[in-house]
Amino acid sequence: MSIKSISLDIFFFCKEDEKMIEQVKNAKPLIHCITNKVTMNDCANALLAIGGSPIMADDEAEVEDITSICQGLLINIGTLNQATIPSMMKAGKKANALQHPVLLDPVGIGASQLRYQTTQQLLKEVHFDVIRGNISEMKVLMNIQSQSRGVDANASDSITDENLDENIIWLQQLSSKTGAIIAVSGAIDVIVDSQNAYIVRNGCQEMSMITGTGCMLSAIMSAFMVVHRQRLLEACTYVSALMGYCGELAKNKMLVEKLGVGSLRVYLMDYLSLMNDGILKEGMKIEKRC
Amino acid sequence: MSIKSISLDIFFFCKEDEKMIEQVKNAKPLIHCITNKVTMNDCANALLAIGGSPIMADDEAEVEDITSICQGLLINIGTLNQATIPSMMKAGKKANALQHPVLLDPVGIGASQLRYQTTQQLLKEVHFDVIRGNISEMKVLMNIQSQSRGVDANASDSITDENLDENIIWLQQLSSKTGAIIAVSGAIDVIVDSQNAYIVRNGCQEMSMITGTGCMLSAIMSAFMVVHRQRLLEACTYVSALMGYCGELAKNKMLVEKLGVGSLRVYLMDYLSLMNDGILKEGMKIEKRC
Amino acid sequence: MSIKSISLDIFFFCKEDEKMIEQVKNAKPLIHCITNKVTMNDCANALLAIGGSPIMADDEAEVEDITSICQGLLINIGTLNQATIPSMMKAGKKANALQHPVLLDPVGIGASQLRYQTTQQLLKEVHFDVIRGNISEMKVLMNIQSQSRGVDANASDSITDENLDENIIWLQQLSSKTGAIIAVSGAIDVIVDSQNAYIVRNGCQEMSMITGTGCMLSAIMSAFMVVHRQRLLEACTYVSALMGYCGELAKNKMLVEKLGVGSLRVYLMDYLSLMNDGILKEGMKIEKRC
Q1: How far is C-alpha C89 from the chain's CA centre?
Q2: Distance from CA of B193 to the nearest CA of A (A)
Q3: Pick from B215, B190, B213, B207: which is nearest to B254 by CA?
Q4: Which one of B58, B140, C177, C239 has the fewest beta carbons within 10 angstroms of its own beta carbon?
Q5: How confident is the prediction for chain A on average, in pLDDT?
Q6: Are A126 and C30 in contact (CB under 8 A)?
Q7: Residues in A touching C274 (Cβ below 8 Å)
C-alpha cells in the first residue's frame, strides 16, 4: 500500500478567499431537522451558535411544507418512532426534488431491527448527500460484523493509525454504494467520498461523556452543506475539525476551572458560537490521504 | 396622528403596594403546558425559576385531568403533532370552562398549513386571554402579507420607532378580533388590548441566538396571568420587561467573562431566578402609548 | 415503638472492599430508558456523568430489541403517552424475562387517571425491583389520601423526624405488596424493603427549583442496580446520598458565585461527574433504622 498522509494548513485546504464559517454566518441557512427527542434542544442551539437557523418538525402533515421553506434537511434516527418514518420519507423526497442537501445520521442503527430496516428504506427512497455517524454504525450499514453497543461505537471497532488504511477502503466502497459522502466521527475522524479521504485529529475523549455531540455535529454539518455545496467533502471535513477543536477548548477550560461535564457541555456551546475561521485555522488538524 | 409615549417608572406602572414577582413566588401557580419538544425543558426550568410550577402533559386521555388540577394553561404549537391537536382543544375548552387563563404561542404559524389551520381552529373553539409571539406570526394571524422565515420573525417585519404607530393600530384590531391581549416580542416589545398599548424596550439581539427565549417568555407569562388576572395587560408587559432585562444582564455577564451562547443560556436562567421587583424596577423600560 | 437510628459511615455501610461508584464506572452499564420528554436529555447526561450509558427508545416496534442489548430498564411515566404504554409493558416483560433489574418512577401518578391506571397495569404485568418517587406519589400507590400537586410532592405529606416511623411502616407494607424496594426522595430520603429501612439526610431545597432531579436520580439508580444487584437496598441508598450530596455541593458553589438556578443545574451535573467513593464518604449522611 502506498497510502500516506499530508497535513494541510488552512491555506491549502480552503481556497484562498474561502471563509467557510463566515459564509455560513452570512447565509444563515434554515435547516429542517427531523431529529431525536433527546438532543433536539442541543441541535437547535448548536445550529444557532454557528449562525444557522433550525426548525424542528416531524409531523407527516407538515414536513413537506417545512422542507419547502428550508435550504437543507437533517434526518437523525435516534428515538425513532413509527409515526415519523413516513415523515422522514416525505421530507427526504421533497428535499431531493428541491435539490436541497440531505444528511442522514443513522443513530444506533445496529440497536434494533426498526432502525436497521428504516435506514435501508431511507437509503432506497431518498438520496443522501452525506451520512454521518460512528464507525460501528458505518459497519452495520456496510454489513460488516460489529459489536455495536447501543448508540455508542464499540471500542473494538475504533479507527486507529494501524487500521486506518483498510478502514478507508471499505468506507470509500460504502460511499460508492450509497452515493453519499461518509463522515465517521471518533478519536480519528475520517471523511471520504469514493475517491478521496480526509482525516481529522481534533476532538477528545471527554466529548463522549456528554450526550449529543454527534447529533450536534450532524446538525452543524447540514448548515455547512447548504452554503458549501460545491465543496461538500471539504466542508464536512472542516466542520469535523470545528466541532473537535471546540471540544478540545471546552475540555481545557473545564480542567482549568476544575469543573465537570455540565460545564463541558456549556463551554462546548460557548466555543461553537465564538469560533471563526481565524481561530479554527490555528487549531485544526486536517490531513489528506493520498 | 397624536400618539406619544410616556415612560413609566414602576411606581406609576404598578399599584403602590403591588409586587408582581413576589406575588407569583408566593402563589406558586401550577401551569399546564402543552408545548413543543425542543424547549419544554427550558420552559419547565423557567417556570420554576420565577416561582411557578410546571406540568407538561399532552396526551388526549389525560389533558382534562391535568388542566383541572392546574391554575393556568399554555398552548405552544412548535413541533405541532396531529396526535396532540385534540389534546389542545380539550385542554383549552376545559380551561375555559374552569375560567383558567389561557395563553397561545403560535410558533411558526406561517411555516405550514398544519400550523395555520390548527391555530384557526384553536381560535374558533378556545378563548385565549393572551396571544404571544413574534411580529411575523401576528401578521399571519391578521392575514397581513409576511415573509415569515421558519420560526423566527422576518427582519422586514420588525417593529421600529418609525412603524410603531401603524403596527399598534392593526395589533389592536387583532386584539379586538380575537378578544385576546396581543403580546409581540422583538427589538421593541408591544403589548396591546383593543384600547391600550404598552411598549417595552428591554432585551437584546443575543437572545435570538439561543432557542426557547420566546417559549420561556410564554411559559412565565402564563404564571403571571394566573396571579394577576385583574391586571392582565400590565402583567404581560411587566413579564416582557422581566425577560428582556434578564437577557440584558445575561448578555453583559457573558461579555465580561468572554464566554458564548452556552453561558448566555445559563445566565439567563440564573437571572430569572435572581430577579425580584426591586431589581426589575431599576432596569425595566416600559412606556405607555397614549 | 422502639425504632431508633444509627448513623453509618461508609466503612459500616459498604463492605470493606466495595467501591460502588468506581464499580459502576468500570462496568459502564447500558440502561434502556423509557422516560419523559421534559428531562430525557438531563437523564442521558446524568447517566453518562456517573459512568453509565443511556439509550432512549420508546417505540413499541423496537423496545424489545433495545432492552435485549441493555443491562437494565428505567420506566418513567412523566409526559405519559398512550402510544408508549404498550412499549412500557413489552420492555418491562422482556427485561423481567432477561432478569434485568427494572425501576419504576411513577411521576405525577396522582395527577390523572391515565397515569394512575397505567401504573396499576404496569405493577400487575411487570415486576419492578425498585419504585422511586416522592412521598405523595407513594401515598397514591398505597391508596392513602394525599393532596398531590401536579408532579411535586405536597408539603403536607412531607416526611419529618416526627412522622418518620409511621411513614416507614406503610412504606414497608408498600414494599411487601409490590415486591419492590421503595425509594422515597424528599428533605429526608427513605429507602426501604419489607424488613429494613435506611434514611438519607443529604440534599437541599434548591434541588426542587430545577426540573429533573428526581428523574436523574432514577436514571442513575438504574445504573447502580445493574452493577450492585446483590446489594440493591444499599445501592439505592448510596445513590440517594450521592445525588443529594452533589446537590449540596452545587448549591454551595451557586451561592459562593452569587449565581442562580441555571448554574445550579450545570454544577449539579459537574459534581455528578466529579463524584467518587472517597468524596462521597466525606459527605454522605446515611442512617439505618433498627
Answers
A1: 20
A2: 30
A3: B207
A4: C177
A5: 94
A6: no
A7: 259-260
Right CATH number for C16-289 from 3.60.40.10, 3.40.1190.20, 3.20.20.300, 2.40.10.120? 3.40.1190.20
Q: Closest approach of chain B CAs to the CA of A147, in angstroms?
A: 32
C-alpha cell at A12: 491549502
Query: Is C38's CB within 8 Å of B44's CB?
Result: yes
Please name the fold of domain B5-289: UDP-N-acetylmuramoyl-L-alanine:D-glutamate ligase (3.40.1190)
Query: Collapsing DSSP states into helix, strand and coil, what is residue B14?
Result: coil
Q: What is the pLDDT of residues C57-79, one digit of tens each?
A: 999 999 999 999 999 999 999 99
Interface check A121 vs C, CB under 8 A: no
Three-state secondary structure string covering C94-116: HHHHCCCCEEEECCCCCCCHHHH
Write the pLDDT tens digit of every residue in A70-115.
Answer: 999 999 999 999 999 999 999 999 999 999 999 999 999 999 999 9
Written as nine digits, the cell of C161 is 423526624
- Number of alpha helices (DSSP H) and beta strands (DSSP E) in chain C: 12, 10
CA-based end-to-end distance of chain C? 11
Residue B257 touches chain C, beta carbons under 8 Å: no
Contacts made by residues B80-86, CB under 8 angstroms, sequence distance 24+: B80/A57, B80/A59, B80/A62, B80/B36, B80/B112, B80/B114, B80/B115, B80/B118, B81/A58, B81/A59, B82/A59, B82/A60, B82/A61, B82/B114, B83/A83, B83/C83, B84/B34, B84/B58, B84/B59, B84/B60, B85/B118, B85/B121, B86/B60
Name chain C contacts of B263, Cβ cutoff 8 Å: none
Best of C79, C255, C256 to disrupt the B interface (most B CBs within 10 Å) is C79
B48 interface with C at CB cutoff 8 Å: yes
d(CA B151, CA A255): 37
A256 touches chain B (CB under 8 A): no
At A1, the pLDDT band (50, 70, 90 cuts) reads very low
Give me the numbers of helices (H) and strands (E) for chain B, helices first please. Answer: 12, 10
- Return left, alpha or beta for B80; rule: phi > 0 is left, psi -120 to 50 is alpha, else beta: beta
The answer, as to whether pTM is greater than 0.90, is: yes
Band (A17; pLDDT cuts 50, 70, 90): low
Inform me whether the C-beta atom of residue C5 falls under 8 Å from chain A C-beta atoms.
Answer: no
Range list of H helices, A98-231? 113-125, 135-141, 164-178, 213-227
Q: β-pairing, A286-289 with A197-200? A: antiparallel
Q: What average pLDDT is seen over chain C?
A: 94
Contacts 24+ apart (CB under 8 A), C165-170: C165/C1, C165/C3, C165/C289, C167/C135, C168/C3, C168/C192, C168/C197, C168/C289, C170/C142, C170/C144
* Chain A 187-206, residues with CB within 8 Å of chain B CB atoms: none
Detail the DSSP E strand segments found in chain C.
Answer: 5-8, 30-34, 53-56, 72-76, 102-105, 130-134, 181-185, 189-192, 197-200, 286-289
Give the domain ranges of chain A: 18-289
Reported ipTM: the value is: 0.94
**A18-289 CATH fold:** UDP-N-acetylmuramoyl-L-alanine:D-glutamate ligase (3.40.1190)
What backbone phi and psi angles, to 5 degrees, belong to B207? Answer: -65, -25
pLDDT of residue C1: 42
